[in-house]
Amino acid sequence: MKEEIIIAGFGGQGVLSMGKILAYSDLLEGKEVTWMPAYGPEQRGGTANVTVIVSTERISSPILSNYDTAIILNQPSLEKFESKVKPGGTLIYDGYSIINPPTRTDIHIYRIDAMDAANEMSNVKVFNMIVLGGLLKLRPVVSIESVLKGLKKTLPPRYHHLIPMNEEAILKGMELIKPQ
């Protein structure tokens, strides 16, 4: 098993932390993992993306030009990465931030209204966990239990009380994801 994933959006949407949690959670399951972030000098509002490779075999290179799965959280990222999804691959996008939805017919396209759901939960900080839940529904590269353990390891102890809310957000994302 090998899954090559790009997560892309604006800084502040939790792009890098979603990738980090995904990578760390897979490490806890004994898988081979790479995590390679890329972002501009702007911390919030600038573009950010992270490449995560999860595999049961050794990973030869963390550098990719095409992806099995793309999680796209804003229009500029869609314009940049839609063409880089392998034929037959998966593209997940948040309906709130995309004006012109993806148009390819040779990939599987899914919409998740994660920002709307985060607003309904009265906490926009769970946006990325909702999106992660959508990914895990379609591409179960790691168990929810491992994600929760990964959160416990990556979050400072003062935020551990938020783990149940993050679990709720992941489950919400699993419910919300739907084909375009």
Regions with little confidence, pLDDT below 50 for 5+ residues = none
What strand order characterises the main sheet? 2-3-1-4-5-6-7
Instruction: Give the strand content.
Output: 25-35%
What structural class is derived from the secondary structure elements? Answer: alpha/beta
- Overall strand count: 7
Q: Helicity range of the residues?
A: 25-40%
Distance between the termini: 26 Å
Radius of gyration: 15 Å
What keyword list fits this structure?
6 helices, seven-stranded mixed sheet, 36% helix, alpha/beta
Q: Any overview of this molecule?
A:
Strands 2-3-1-4-5-6-7 form a seven-stranded mixed β-sheet, sandwiched between helices. The protein contains six helices and seven strands, in the order βαβββαββααααβ. Helix 1 packs across helix 5, helix 4 (127-138) packs across helix 6 (163-176) and helix 5 (144-154) packs antiparallel against helix 6 (163-176). The protein is of the alpha/beta class. The protein is globular. The chain starts with a strand and ends with a strand.
Layout of helices and strands, plus pairs?
Blueprint: E1 2-10, H1 15-28, E2 32-39, E3 47-55, E4 67-72, H2 75-81, E5 85-94, E6 108-112, H3 114-120, H4 127-138, H5 144-154, H6 163-176, E7 178-179
Parallel strand pairs: 1-4, 4-5, 5-6
Antiparallel strand pairs: 1-3, 2-3, 6-7
Helix pairs in contact: 1-5, 3-4, 4-6, 5-6
